[in-house]
Design brief:
Shape: elongated
Strand order of the largest sheet: 1-2-6-8-10-12-14-16
Amino acid sequence: MKKTLTIILALVLCIMAFAACGTDKEPDVTTTTAAATEAATTAAATAAATTTTTTTTTTTTETTTPPDPWDAAATPAGAFEFSDGVITKYTGNYDVVRIPKRIDGVEVTAIGESAFISNTAITELYLPPDFLKTIGAKAFAMAENLKFVDLGVVTTIGDEAFLLAPLDEIVMSPFLVSIGDEAFRLKTFANRGDPVVDLVIPASVRTIGERGLSSDRFKSFTFEGETLPAFGANCFFGINAVIYVHDALGENDAVALATVEAFQAAEIQVSTKVLRMDGTTLFADFSADYEYRVQGWTVRIDKYLGSDEIVEVPALIGGQAVTVIGDDAFKGNGSIRSVVLPDGLESLYSGAFGECANLESVEMPDSITYMGLGVFYETPSLKSIVWPKGAEEIAYNSFRDSGIESIVIPDGVMTVGDSAFNGCENLKSVSMASTVNTLGHSVFEGCTALEAIDFLPAGLGEIPNSGFKGCIRGGLIIVPEGVTHIQEDAFSGCGEINSDSGLMAELGVKYINFSSDPASELGDDWVNDDRLPRLVRIYLPSTIKYIGPDVFRWMWISTIRLPDGMREVSQLPEFDDSFRDIRTIFQILVDDETTEEEMDLLDEFFLGIDEVGDICWYEKAGGYYWSRILLG
């Protein structure tokens, strides 16, 4: 441009000089300079106009819209049936299909229901980077050779969209929100080959439907969001994959557990591991502390290998829920003082904590439904426990010879098995729910610290053999309504007498009996003398029908209380050698409606029982007295 202006200016100066020579006059410098300036200005304006014209022409050329390269490479429009933005059917035979952005100038916004169903030609599918947001139900279902799909900018994938398609690679849309039921229930491997699909679930996804990702073709899932989508039932059914999640989903144990439980509820398989995106496990690795085995979908702990005093059994090992603690898993461990069992635990097998000499406390979740034999036998330091509500039975020997001092048996427990608390010499307090309807043989035998047996529920049908043999040293025994049978040895050996024979000689009686006369030879304060026997009072129910052999053997009884209304001999239960070797029985109480005639008949009946007659009649002031008191 500058060169052009210089040439024009030189031509103008030459012309002016020639004109001045023709007139033989000295040229006027001022006039010449002005003329030159004007000429230069005119030339510059002309050049500028020319430049402007050129620039305008160039600009017009640059704004011309070229053909869309996507559509230029897309599958021809004639391969589709198309209506109102929706591809309703694929009629072509191309193996690689690129869906166009527009057909006949109209934007493609959806692939309609069943549009490619059962197609055998297509192997690769590319959706456009604009406009197409929806894939309809069954759109590519049973497309038996479809191996690759790029979902473009799709937001919604309908039910069964890729049902039974043999996909090996899926590029997800970063804008995807919803995956329908069975949308990616892909075709399984005919020969159980290795998984191949690594699927990245973008943070935008909010819902994945029932069996939405169910296939053994999936190798891994990566969830990019800080929250999980809502999973439909059996969402991951049949997978054999690794799951990666955002670190936020494992920021503490509670969140990690909730994350894994969410996947488990959606039917992940046993081999599935849930990891953070850096590859570390989502939870603490407890595997070094335990010998364990994987059973189906869960973990069974077979042996505790640690030596900690306080043990919190993990809820997860290797990504799987711990549901079983096996036989003898902690047996004989001398270090453990306290154990906390995790929510989700379902079973404690036989002897699990047996012979743990220093075990003092155990916290058990209500998720436990099964407790084996002798779970806490010979644990002398164990003081108290609350039984889990889900376990219906306290089994054989569960607490035998333990140091337990109190037990709460909650609603839901129906059976307390044979010898469950046998030999628990420190057991003072028992709370037993009304749901208990069966007690095993010797269930509380030898529980000498019990102050009373007044905790039995009305649902019991019988008191078992030796159920409370040698149990309380003195106090109250209430046999509840509903009990019809008291079996052999049920209360034998209950009660106690001081071994000081000199005391008995001092009292001057063969057996410590008393009459209805309050001014007996023992004096008014005999019951407060701690040197005297710790006697037992027994209350019988109206439902009682049978009292078996040796039920009252070796017992020190102050009172047997007959139920109201039991006034006749015919109403009495059958006594089957029940009083053999009884130590004493002070009185048999009847209600105040009993007549003298009925009393005489009852006297005759009981005194006709040799063992009772021997101890209940005694001589005083030349007469014989029956130690009964008529309640008034």
